[in-house]
Amino acid sequence: xxxVTQSQPEMSVQEAETVTLSCTYDTSExxxxxxWYKQPPSRQMILVIRQEAYKxxxxxxxxxxxxxxxxxxxxxxxxxxxxxxxxxxxxxAFALDSNYQLIWGAGTKLIIKP
Amino acid sequence: xxxxxxxxxxxxKTRGQQVTLRxxxxxxxxxxxxxxxxxxxxxxxxxxYYEKEERGRGNFPDRFSARQFPNYSSELNVxxxxxxxxxxxxxxxRHRGRPEQYFGPGTRLTVT
Lengths: 114, 112
Known about the structure:
- The complex is a heterodimer.
- Helix content of chain A is 0%, strand content 53%.
- Chain A is mainly beta.
- In chain A, the strands form 3 sheets. In chain A, strands 2, 5, 6, 10, 11 and 12 form a 6-stranded mixed β-sheet that branches. Chain A has a 4-stranded antiparallel β-sheet with strand order 3-9-8-7, with no helix packed on it.
- Chain A is globular.
- By secondary structure, chain B is mostly beta strands.
- Helix content of chain B is 0%, strand content 51%.
- In chain B, strands 2, 4, 5, 6, 9, 10 and 11 form a 7-stranded mixed β-sheet that branches.
- Chain B starts with a strand and ends with a strand.
- Chains A and B meet through β5, β6, β10 and β11 of A and β4, β5, β9 and β10 of B.
C-alpha cells in the first residue's frame, strides 16, 4: 500500500521569504505521479505542481519548484518570494499511473506574515 | 471553460437520512472521482468513474454509492447517514491520459 507523510503540521514565514514544505512517501511501484495541492480558506483544492516519477528533472511552475529525490522517496515543495496569497493548507499527494487514485498526506498549514 | 461544479454547496441532514451530491466535470473530461475530507485531515478516495463505469473504490462502506451519467456528470449517494459522515465532499475530473485532477468547490455535509 502507498502512504504519504507530511511531518510539518504548520509553518510560518515572512512575506518575500523562501519556504520549503516536506513530503515523504512509500511505495514499491515504479510508475507514479506526485502532486502538491493548495487549499485556501475557501477550501477549493488547487493544483500547484506535478512531477512524473520517471522524470529526473524537477518540476517548476513560476515561484513554485520541487525537489524530487526518488531513491529517498522525498518530494519537497519550495515557494520563492512568498506572498500573502500563498497562505493556505498544502497537501502532498501520490497517484499510481495505473489508476490515478490520489493518496494524500495530512497537510501543512502555511502562514505568510506581512 | 467552466471548471468542475458541485451542488449543493452546503447541506444539513439528520442521522439515518439519505443524501445525493452532484458533480459536473470540466468539458471534455470523462473521468470523475469523489473524495471525502474530514475537517483537519487530508482527503480520502471514495470512488472513481470513467466512461460511466466504476474504475475504483476506496475503503468506504456500502452505504456509499455513485454513478456517472452519459454526459459524464456524477452523483454520490450516502444512505443511513452517521455523524461521522460530516465532511467536505470533493469531486474531481481528469482528462483521459493525463494524471492531474481538477477539483470542484466541494459540498459541505453536516449530519446532526
